[in-house]
Specification:
Belongs to the phD/YefM antitoxin family. Helix content is about 40%, strand content about 15%.
Length: about 90
Amino acid sequence: MIPTLDDHNITVGQLRQNPTQMLADVQGGERYVVTSHGRPIADVVPHVGSGWVPIDQVAQLLGKSGDEDWARELDEQRAEQDLRDPWQ
């Protein structure tokens, strides 16, 4: 990560002395760049969730018909087609 103007810099020594305040700030959305001897060594940023959706929500969404008119039109077209097994 490239430090931006919105990032706070904190030295390893400062972090060692009071990690609680920095972690509270990060929980509130702040970002920190941890430095050692003036060089950035780590970024501490708010956690971002995985984006996974629970399976029960996926099943619920897949169980719904998006457009009933479209589904009805597909059913009509399927009924009109002469679907035969070419191997018989």
